[in-house]
Each structure stands twice: as structure tokens, then as C-alpha cells.
TrEMBL record:
<dbReference type="InterPro" id="IPR036683">
    <property type="entry name" value="CO_DH_flav_C_dom_sf"/>
</dbReference>
<dbReference type="GO" id="GO:0016491">
    <property type="term" value="F:oxidoreductase activity"/>
</dbReference>
<feature type="domain" description="FAD-binding PCMH-type">
    <location>
        <begin position="1"/>
        <end position="219"/>
    </location>
</feature>
<dbReference type="InterPro" id="IPR016169">
    <property type="entry name" value="FAD-bd_PCMH_sub2"/>
</dbReference>
<dbReference type="InterPro" id="IPR016166">
    <property type="entry name" value="FAD-bd_PCMH"/>
</dbReference>
<dbReference type="GO" id="GO:0071949">
    <property type="term" value="F:FAD binding"/>
</dbReference>
<dbReference type="InterPro" id="IPR051312">
    <property type="entry name" value="Diverse_Substr_Oxidored"/>
</dbReference>
<dbReference type="InterPro" id="IPR005107">
    <property type="entry name" value="CO_DH_flav_C"/>
</dbReference>
<dbReference type="InterPro" id="IPR016167">
    <property type="entry name" value="FAD-bd_PCMH_sub1"/>
</dbReference>
<keyword id="KW-0560">Oxidoreductase</keyword>
<dbReference type="InterPro" id="IPR002346">
    <property type="entry name" value="Mopterin_DH_FAD-bd"/>
</dbReference>
<protein>
    <submittedName>
        <fullName>Xanthine dehydrogenase YagS FAD-binding subunit</fullName>
    </submittedName>
</protein>
<dbReference type="Pfam" id="PF00941">
    <property type="entry name" value="FAD_binding_5"/>
</dbReference>
<dbReference type="Pfam" id="PF03450">
    <property type="entry name" value="CO_deh_flav_C"/>
</dbReference>
<dbReference type="InterPro" id="IPR036318">
    <property type="entry name" value="FAD-bd_PCMH-like_sf"/>
</dbReference>
């Protein structure tokens, strides 16, 4: 691990004043410290933000506001989260391990790096780590990599289960910097790799995530998250689906669908949502709609199975909702 300066401010203004181009904010540290130990990330300054006043879960007419420093395990069992947005609670409980969820923050989870084993190995080329060195996953071990949103520069999948659920729910993030505050839809927060895979989101240097806003959606209490992985704990998704549906009289009135494990960022599927509207809430309708999920997919030598797997994962998630026979 490289040497670095350390600071532990107690106010947001102090934290922002300390931030610079090569600084890193530390919350739970479950990703940052891991990558620093491997010398994948080498910040000059680490700013511990755990004393900042950006905690709490507030419910109002607009929905829920969740502080970025709330721990994942606490949010997963919060009454309002479980009753209003079960898809969030389920996505959190499917993430990492219990020990990590006790440490990891909500904001930190959304900011974890889109990564693969080649990114973590400083002896391998990686366009995300060092531009122009190449992407060995394209012709190498790519079973766990993305099939949606990829480029010739990067095919790594976005790892967050939470982000998939929040994208399905049209959540926003509140960002704070020295210049002020802005609110960004989470679906617009993440960027595609293109030719610059090291740029994963729209954060500017020194900008801090302070809150997550989940807008009120009455029928989001009928929601679910399904994650398919090689083992039941501490494993990234091969495919996952976050779904919510307004089902009246056996017919889908509205739906929200997003998937993970298959995209370079959390992947919202408006075409699947449109195909579900007005259709019977049954396996046949779900299967037909799910076929649209893989439009534009670019499978590699070892991950073509994900094209079928993600469709089946969507159907499985939808079949688990209330009102489906």
C-alpha cells in the first residue's frame, strides 16, 4: 500500500475543503481499502467522513430520503424500506456478506468501482486502470462480464445490487461540492465505458454523495429482487432483476424493471416495461416481454449464457409478485 495523508473532518464543509483531485472519501472502506491494499487505487489523501452529519432515513410525502452514511444492514431492516420498497431491502440482503453489510455505507455501495479480476491485478493490462493498455477480458476469461453497454475498451460489469433496485425506482442522488448542491437521477449518474472506462459516473473531483432520494410510488410495495450467482453469499450476480408492478384484476397496469450482472452499469429496461403494460400477469406475458431485455446484447466467448439467464431471471422475479398466478 502506498503512503497517504489522512484526515477526519467533522463537518461537510471541512471534508469538501480537504478534497482534491487525488483524494478519496472513506466511509465503510469495504472497497476502497481492499483496492488500496492491492495498489490498484493510490490516493494521496484519505478523508474519513464517518463523523459527517449525513445519516438518517426520513419518510415524507415525497418518499424516502436516505443518508449516504447509513449502513446497508440498517437500511435493509428499516420498517419503511421493507414495507414501501421491499425490492431495496431484498437487494441489500443479497449484497456481499453480513459482516460487510454492517460496515458498508449506502453511498459507498453506489460508488464501488465497476471492476473485474483484470482490474484488480496490477500486473495485467486494463484500460480502466491505465488508459490505452487494452482489455484482456475481450479475449480472455469473460464468463462474469457484461453483455449490455460494453465497448471495445471495457466489458466489466457494475457490481452493485442496490443500484439496480434504485434505478428501477427512479431514485436520485444528492451531490455536494464546494460549488453547491445538485440532484442527479441515478440512471444518469452512471456512464457507459465508451473509450474512457475509467470514468464511471458524473461525479466531479471532490464531490460527495450525501443523500439518496427514493420517490414515493404506491405500488412499489409489490416489488422484488432476484439475484442469480454461483454461490449464495459473497458473490457478484451473474444476472439479477429488480421489478415492481401495479397489478389490478390480473392485468399489469404499470411496471418497473432493471437488471444487473449483465451491464456495465445498472440497466433499466423501458422496452420491457412497455411490453408488460396492459398484459395478463402470467408467465407467458412475462416471458414475451423479457425477450426485449437483451436488445443490443454483445455476448463474448464465455458469457453468452447470460442472454438467456437474464430473461429467465426477470420472469422469475415477476412471478414472485403478489397477484400473479
Amino acid at each position: 500500500m502506498h503512503g497517504f495523508d489522512f484526515a477526519a473532518p467533522t463537518t461537510t464543509d471541512q471534508a469538501l475543503a480537504l478534497a482534491a483531485d487525488r483524494s478519496a472519501f472513506l466511509a465503510g472502506g469495504t472497497t476502497l481499502v481492499d483496492l488500496m491494499k492491492l495498489d490498484v487505487l493510490t490516493p494521496d489523501r484519505v478523508i474519513d467522513i464517518n463523523d459527517l452529519p449525513i445519516r438518517g432515513i426520513v419518510r415524507d410525502r415525497g418518499g424516502l430520503a436516505i443518508g449516504a452514511l447509513e449502513r446497508m444492514s440498517d437500511v435493509a431492516v428499516h420498517r419503511d424500506v421493507r414495507t414501501m420498497f421491499p425490492v431495496i431491502a431484498q437487494a441489500l440482503l443479497a449484497s456481499a456478506s453480513g459482516q460487510l453489510r454492517n460496515m458498508a455505507s449506502m453511498g459507498g455501495n453506489l460508488l464501488q468501482r465497476t471492476r473485474c479480476d483484470y482490474f484488480r491485478d496490477v500486473h495485467s493490462p486494463c484500460n480502466k486502470r491505465q488508459s490505452g493498455t487494452g482489455c484482456p477480458a475481450l479475449g480472455g476469461d469473460n464468463r462474469g462480464h457484461a453483455v449490455l453497454g460494453t465497448s471495445d475498451a471495457c466489458v466489466a460489469t457494475h457490481a452493485s445490487d442496490l443500484a439496480v433496485a434504485l434505478v428501477a425506482l427512479d431514485a436520485h442522488v444528492v451531490l455536494q461540492s464546494k460549488q453547491g448542491q445538485r440532484v442527479v437521477p441515478l440512471i444518469e449518474f452512471y456512464t457507459l465505458p465508451g473509450a474512457t472506462p475509467s470514468v464511471e459516473n458524473v461525479l466531479t473531483p471532490g464531490e460527495l454523495v450525501t443523500r439518496i432520494l427514493v420517490p414515493r410510488l404506491v405500488w412499489a410495495d409489490n416489488s422484488a429482487y432476484v439475484k442469480v450467482r454461483d454461490r449464495q453469499s459473497y458473490e457478484f450476480a451473474l444476472a439479477s432483476a429488480a421489478v415492481a408492478a401495479d397489478i389490478v384484476g390480473g392485468t399489469v397496469q404499470e411496471a418497473r424493471v432493471a437488471v444487473g450482472g449483465v451491464g456495465t452499469k445498472p440497466w433499466r429496461l423501458p422496452q420491457v416495461e412497455a411490453a408488460l403494460r396492459g398484459k395478463p400477469a402470467n408467465e407467458q406475458s412475462f416471458t414475451e416481454a423479457a425477450k426485449l431485455a437483451v436488445q443490443g446484447a454483445r455476448p463474448l466467448a464465455h458469457n453468452g449464457f447470460k442472454v438467456i439467464l437474464v430473461q429467465r431471471t426477470i420472469v422469475r422475479a415477476l412471478m414472485g409478485l403478489r397477484g400473479v398466478r
